[in-house]
Write a structure and sequence with these properties.
Blueprint: E1 6-9, E2 12-20, H1 23-31, H2 33-36, E3 52-58, E4 78-89, E5 93-98, E6 105-114, E7 117-125, H3 129-151, H4 158-177
Antiparallel strand pairs: 1-2, 2-7, 3-4, 4-5, 5-6, 6-7
Helix pairs in contact: 3-4
Length: 181
């Protein structure tokens, strides 16, 4: 299984990871503000369909390695965004809106126990091409950090990993737009 996301249809990217369990622990890393803040973003969550979720990002602070972002990403490490929970089925499924509140994309996390491990499948739908160029390496990097946190490893700097995988996603998105590419 590759850590790289797969563009499974136009405007949709899918990631899959097998993580240390149990499933309840992984669920906490999706829904508990403090634990979610270790790999993605902290913020209040109303744990119900229709509930609000605030994500307060600080990508520069997800690792003790403070390697700064490349010049073209400077100033993009901190942000706050608002989302709506679209599906809430503990501890197996979490869905939410993403991005533009007037025309949001959709993010779904599905968890499946596999012995002492948990398969996480993340699917992000309705992504404009330009957004996918950031979302692909962003989810890739955040999920790597989640795996490190759950596995008791020190995560690499967010911007180091993001930079390393960006070209891969640029090529995949370009190939989607131009099948001969």
């Amino acid at each position: 299984m590759s850590d790289y996301g797969e563009i499974i249809e136009p405007a949709t990217i899918r990631f899959e990871r097998v993580l240390p369990g149990p499933i309840e622990r992984v669920w906490e890393f999706l829904t508990d503000s403090e634990k979610r803040g270790l790999w993605l973003a902290s913020g209040a969550m109303e744990p119900r369909v229709g509930g609000k979720l605030t994500l307060a990002y600080d990508n520069n602070d997800l690792s003790p390695d403070k390697t700064p972002p490349a010049e073209n990403y400077k100033g993009r490490g901190r942000a706050t965004s608002q989302h709506t929970i679209t599906r809430f089925e503990p501890p197996r499924f979490l869905g939410m809106t993403w991005g533009d509140p007037n025309d949001p994309s959709e993010v779904n996390f599905e968890l499946t126990p596999e012995g002492d491990r948990v398969r996480l499948v993340l699917v992000h739908r309705r992504l404009p091409r330009a957004t996918m160029l950031n979302v692909g390496p962003g989810w890739h990097t955040h999920l790597n950090i989640l795996g490190d946190q759950l596995g008791g490893r020190t995560p690499r700097a967010f911007w180091t990993v993001f930079g390393e995988v960006s070209e891969y996603y640029e090529k995949r998105v370009a190939a989607q737009t131009n099948p001969r590419g």
